[in-house]
Write a structure and sequence with these properties.
The complex is a heterodimer.
Chain A (H helix, E strand, L loop, with lengths): L1 E9 L8 H13 L3 E6 L7 E6 L2 E6 L7 E10 L3 H8 L9 E6 L6
Chain B lengths: L1 H8 L2 H22 L5 H23 L5 H10 L7 H15 L6 H12 L4 H7 L4 H17 L12 H20 L10 H17 L3 H14 L25 H16 L5 H14 L8 H14 L3 H15 L1 H13 L7 H13 L3 H14 L3 H14 L2
Helix pairs in contact in B: 1-2, 1-3, 1-5, 2-3, 3-4, 5-6, 6-8, 6-9, 7-8, 9-10, 9-11, 10-11, 11-12, 11-13, 12-13, 13-14, 14-15, 15-16, 16-17, 17-18, 18-19
Classes of the chains: A alpha+beta, B mainly alpha.
Chain lengths: 110, 394
């Protein structure tokens, strides 16, 4: 089953973990065959929110909700179960600085 | 039986339904055909087949249902559940799944009482003074998360065991305390919950004889042994030093003391065992005056090293007051309060009042008692504090 691990960090901690450490983590996941995808994100100041209401597209600057921690990146991992996923999430370096939200992926019903 | 069916069917709700169906089948067949040689195996197989039937019926309507697939696999798995060991493991798996840290703490408690102890939702709701609908929703949500996030039905791996066992012990102790010192309401104790917690603790020690589990069971037994003495027939609180020690339950004390000794001799006992050892020192003293306060202070020193907390410090201060006199204890209590900790904790003010009283500082004792009174929410405790306040004026 796939789990999306969302990495959250406070603004001043966005660079607390060196990039090469994050790359090493991603490479480790790739080598053990559990990595589906992983990316780091630009800070939330660069975000644009898109909504469509009554067929009209509304574009606003910034994220939908203001929170203390912001989404800094993600790992999409293939895990046996939640325990396995929690184990992998605890290996993600920014978990030491911020938090990692582990969300099971929902299969779409055709 | 429920625990085994959850493993075989991989679904809490399907397993619960299967248990009902199996008992219904037994009620029909056993009077007619006689009781089978192994009633438990009979019930488990009956439950399993009923569940497979149900899943196949549903499958016709819902192609995506995976209960049926799991159940089919279980059928081919030739009665692996039958031996006693795997049935015991199932109970342990069930406990660890219900107390999984990915579930909200109140949901862990509700689910454990429901699935492991077999309490009805209404009974749990009543014990925790929670509306039944809220509690039912909590359970439904927890079961949903177990299914959708795929919380595995397993005993954790050795490396995760200490942390996960802590979570289980926390749930059991919470249930015990809710029963032992009901945080609000009319009565001092709610017996059923303490009894359930002790039953759970015993089951855990039987399945997983870890020092921490033994320590917790000992602690619960030693506290519970004072049940008959800690409230008067009128429902008033009786403090430890005023309790009639003849009313203490010797059987529970003996069992608790044996468990403490076993836990301590392992050399890797945790805070529950130390707290139980403190309770055992009290239990072994024929009178309050004969209490070995030096031993108790020493145990609190060990406990402070393991889990430093202002509440432990407060208890240590009370023990020091008993050993070295009230002034020594008061000094520590005041230093805790000066740090701004425990200011809203009623017991710190009650303890301070008692120490001031013994030192003849009556007006300070009164002020502290009034502060404690303002913070208490439990009726018998309020009456005790009022009696002590009235005694001050005598």
């Amino acid at each position: 089953m796939k789990y999306l691990c969302l990495v959250y960090l406070e603004k001043d901690k966005l660079h607390a973990v060196p990039d090469n450490e994050c790359m090493a983590c991603g490479n480790g996941f790739r080598t053990s065959g559990v990595l589906v995808a992983a990316e780091a994100l630009q800070p939330v100041d660069t975000a644009t929110t898109v909504r469509v209401r009554n067929g009209k597209t509304y574009i606003t600057d910034g994220p939908f909700a203001e929170t203390k921690e912001q989404l800094a990146g993600f790992y999409l991992l293939d895990a046996r179960d939640l325990n396995d996923a929690i184990h992998m999430a605890s290996k993600i370096p920014p978990a030491r600085e911020g938090s990692v939200e582990v969300r099971p992926v929902r299969e779409l019903v055709p | 039986m429920l625990a085994t069916l959850i493993r075989l069917l991989g679904d809490f709700d399907a397993a619960e339904e299967a248990v009902h169906d199996a008992f219904r089948a037994a009620l029909e067949q056993w009077p007619r055909d006689g009781v089978p040689a192994n009633p438990l195996s009979w019930l488990v197989s009956a439950g399993r087949f009923k569940a497979i039937d149900a899943a196949r019926r549903r499958k016709r309507f819902d192609a995506l249902d995976d209960v049926g697939e799991k159940a089919d696999v279980a059928v081919m798995d030739t009665a692996a559940w039958a031996d006693e060991e795997s049935v015991e493991d199932d109970q342990l798996r069930l406990i660890f799944t219900c107390c999984h840290p990915a579930l909200a703490p109140d949901a862990q408690v509700a689910l454990t009482l429901r699935e492991v102890c077999g309490l009805k939702t209404e009974e749990i709701a009543l014990a925790f003074l929670t509306p039944p609908a809220t509690l039912a929703q909590r359970i439904v949500r927890a079961k949903g998360k177990i299914r959708d996030a795929r919380i595995p039905y397993e005993v954790p791996a050795r490396e995760d065991l200490p942390e996960r066992l802590d979570a289980v012990l926390r749930v059991i102790y919470l249930v015990f305390n809710e029963g032992y010192a009901a945080s609000s309401g009319q009565q001092v104790t709610r017996h059923d919950l303490s009894g359930e917690a002790i039953r759970l603790g015993r089951l855990l020690v039987e399945l997983l004889p870890e020092p921490d589990a033994q320590g917790l069971l000992a602690l619960m037994l030693l506290h519970d042994s004072r049940r008959a003495a800690r409230s008067s027939p009128e429902g008033e609180v009786v403090l430890l030093e005023d309790q009639d020690r003849a009313l203490w339950n010797r059987e529970q004390i003996d069992e608790g003391t044996r468990l403490v000794e076993r836990a301590l001799s392992s050399g890797r006992s945790g805070p529950y065992a130390i707290q139980a050892a403190i309770a055992a020192v009290h239990a072994e003293s024929p009178t309050p005056a004969a209490t070995d306060w030096n031993e108790i202070v020493g145990l609190y020193d060990v406990l402070t090293g393991m889990t430093p907390s202002p509440v432990v410090e407060l208890n240590r201060a009370v023990a020091i007051a008993m050993r070295d006199g009230p002034a020594a204890g008061l000094e520590i209590v005041d230093s805790i309060l000066a740090r701004g900790e425990l200011r809203d904790y009623r017991l710190v003010h009650a303890a301070r009042a008692e120490l001031c009283r013994r030192l003849g500082r009556t007006s300070e004792a009164r002020a502290s008692l009034e502060r404690a009174l303002a913070l208490t929410r439990q009726e018998p405790e309020r009456r005790l504090l009022e009696r002590r306040l009235a005694d001050l004026s005598k």
